């Protein structure tokens, strides 16, 4: 599966999961009686903050990199990312003993820059715009011949990310809803596919910051809408969707719900306090969106929540 040119099938997802299993952690699923009582729900948290590199991104990056042919792999891989995908590509490339060229914006979180360096990635800094990222990545690829590993708009990435919900479903078995944060949509579309194949009567709902509601608008309009604002605290969700992720999302995702900034901070703190684990702000968006829902839809339901990562700058906590 060097180039996956179609929406991943269940067989593709199973193959991806098998391929990456030696390199990833099968992360635990936690629950909290206190949170269940607070929200009148049964919440199951899939803890990708315990994944190598501190986020789910390693799943997709490992699948894309380990499915390259030998000739392509030896020239290395390149990507642009503000953080978690960058670390995942650097880590997976090191495991495959090939070079990783990482384009990062100058405003990327310090902890994520340090992570890329630690995993042996060669960093090229650029201005914090998508245009600058893409232009710099093209220059790097032109010089090195490296294969570009897109952060989300790649079926190999989506198939790898789908392994996360696959594990959650295998462990919990009966879920009414899975709530997944959405940035570029790689995890969301993978989650939607795994749920469609393995738990077809369940719904997948995307959660997004109200201050970065491009996925919400894209879902309504049917085309990729630009990010109009990047001021949300959820730095992992400041990216617009890709064509591939939006297409899957429109077929298999029930709705996109929004979370207020103050709810994101509150949900993040609640998870730290009740589950005793470190998560980054983007992770808290699903619980925040449930918190902000006034329809009563979630009450009494078995709900899976994917906690996407734990790479947070401890010197810049939102409640300090």
UniProtKB/TrEMBL annotation:
Domain of life the protein comes from: Bacteria
Signal sequence extent: none
Cited InterPro entries: Ser/Thr_deHydtase_PyrdxlP-BS, TrpB-like_PALP, TrpB-like_PALP_sf
Keyword ATP-binding (UniProt): no
Keywords: Lyase, Magnesium, Pyridoxal phosphate
Cofactor(s) the record lists: Mn(2+); pyridoxal 5'-phosphate; Ca(2+); Mg(2+)
SUPFAM superfamilies: Tryptophan synthase beta subunit-like PLP-dependent enzymes
Gene Ontology annotations of biological process type: D-serine biosynthetic process
UniProt entry tagged with the keyword Magnesium: yes
Domain Tryptophan synthase beta chain-like PALP positions: 20-309
Family assignment from sequence similarity: Belongs to the serine/threonine dehydratase family.
Protein name: Threonine dehydratase
Organism: Thermoflexibacter ruber
């Amino acid at each position: 599966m060097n180039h996956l040119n179609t929406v991943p099938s269940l067989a593709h997802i199973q193959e991806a999961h098998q391929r990456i299993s030696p390199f990833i952690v099968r992360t635990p699923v936690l629950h909290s009686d206190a949170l269940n009582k607070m929200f009148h729900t049964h919440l199951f948290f899939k803890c990708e903050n315990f994944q190598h590199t501190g986020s789910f991104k390693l799943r997709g990056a490992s699948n894309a990199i380990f499915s390259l042919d030998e000739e392509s792999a030896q020239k290395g891989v390149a990507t642009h990312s503000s953080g978690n995908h960058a670390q995942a590509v650097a880590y997976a490339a090191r495991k495959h003993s090939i070079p990783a060229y990482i384009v990062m914006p100058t405003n990327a979180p310090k902890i994520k820059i340090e992570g890329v360096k630690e995993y042996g990635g060669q960093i090229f800094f650029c201005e914090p715009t998508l245009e600058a990222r893409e232009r710099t990545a093209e220059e790097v690829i032109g010089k090195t011949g490296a294969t570009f590993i897109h952060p989300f708009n790649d079926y190999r990435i989506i198939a790898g990310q789908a392994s996360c919900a696959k594990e959650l479903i295998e462990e919990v078995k009966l879920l009414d809803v899975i709530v997944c944060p959405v940035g570029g949509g790689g995890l969301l579309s993978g989650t939607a596919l795994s749920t469609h194949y393995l738990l077809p009567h369940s719904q997948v709902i995307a959660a997004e910051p109200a201050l970065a509601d491009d996925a919400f608008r894209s879902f309504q309009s049917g085309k990729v809408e630009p990010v109009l604002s990047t001021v949300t605290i959820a730095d992992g969700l400041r990216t617009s969707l890709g064509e591939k992720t939006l297409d899957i999302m429109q077929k298999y995702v029930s709705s996109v719900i929004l979370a207020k900034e103050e709810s994101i901070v509150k949900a993040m703190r609640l998870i730290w306090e009740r589950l005793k684990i470190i998560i980054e702000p983007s992770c808290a968006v699903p619980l925040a969106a449930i918190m902000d829902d006034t329809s009563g839809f979630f009450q009494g339901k078995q709900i899976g929540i994917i906690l996407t990562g734990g790479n947070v700058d401890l010197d810049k906590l939102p409640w300090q």
